[in-house]
Amino acid sequence: MFIDTAKVFVKSGDGGHGAISFRREKYVPLGGPDGGDGGRGGDVIFVVDIGMTTLLDFKYKRKFVAETGTSGGASKCYGKDGNDITIRVPLGTIIKDSESGKIMCDLSHKDDKYVVCKGGKGGKGNVKFCTPTRQAPNFAEPGMPGEERFVSLELKLLADVGLLGFPNVGKSTFISTVTKAKPKIANYHFTTLKPNLGVVSVPGIEPFVMADIPGIIEGAAEGVGLGLEFLRHIERTRLLIHVVDISGIEGRDPIEDFIKINEELKKYSVKLWDRPQIVVANKCDMLYDEEVFENFKKKVNEMGYDKVFKMSAATYDNVEAVVKAAAEMLKDIPITDLIINPEDMFVPEDKKFTYTISVEPYDDGEESYNVYVIEGSFVDRLLLAVNVNDPDSFRYFHKVLKNKGIFDELREMGIQHGDMVRTNDFEFEYVM
């Protein structure tokens, strides 16, 4: 089974909480705070495994969660960092954010790796909040939450040469004669249901990788049949060998087929359409009128394609000439990475200090005022860090809101003396 797409859920580990602790020993009555920091949460990392060829493993396991950091302890003991989780994928895998569809990374080299979710930072222990005027802080910082998201994996085969053409034109027979690939071969349409890779190794030429892509039909660029799934696999190829059935035994016009396939390429990607092509008129052993090939070659030459070969993959006639021409052209075509437009790249949001403020009017008949509701991961985390019933801790809470500009924003929104501010289940009166 060939699986070339998958969707998985990934979550990095939460950071461990900082400890609230005070040194308590005999003969040390004023030991002071000694709460240690929490450990960092584990990352989720995708790495290339050259031994993998499909995304089949992700059909059975679709959830990956890294380890949470350990909370800090007394005596300034730091919590243990959570272990990272490593997810292995085949070479040529593209990782996308499922929600936005943006590309996060392209793992197209042997040692590539990508941190898709960073572990949450460990919280500071209360010893870190000690100042000359606040010598016994009764609060600590909670660990930052880990990131989580659904990601889509797409495998785009890494091949130097891609075989192109309508179904049943002889692509599978061709690749089976020049490589050790063993595709299913039969005389009916869509025999090939999955891409096949093979290494072409002929004496006198530099070996290269060839991909037999399942036959493309009209409308493939719009997703007809399995068009988009097949077209993605020739995006990385440097050279295309366009195979047509010159025999006409199925009543098809080779020129018409050639034009239709190139139109599908152009609709899908202009860069792909502009890629160098070797045109191969296959099944010449069943051709009884040489003028058919000569007319075909003339028309293809007029379209700008000068490499046109007559071939029979079944009898091995002229196969070596096609392979050597491909090897010669590859010498002058540089290896380039897949070009990704900047607007298609995923840009992670900084959720560390995200919050929203909304206004809810309150009127019970006796008094009326506005309630300003602050929501978001920032205030959730801040409330976990403080003890609002402790004066020093509450002063720290007030200071953070002021430093982050929340009070300035409230004033811009028109907050008045006596209005209420609510964060989660904690509410306090705003005083000018």
From TrEMBL:
<protein>
    <submittedName>
        <fullName>GTPase Obg</fullName>
    </submittedName>
</protein>
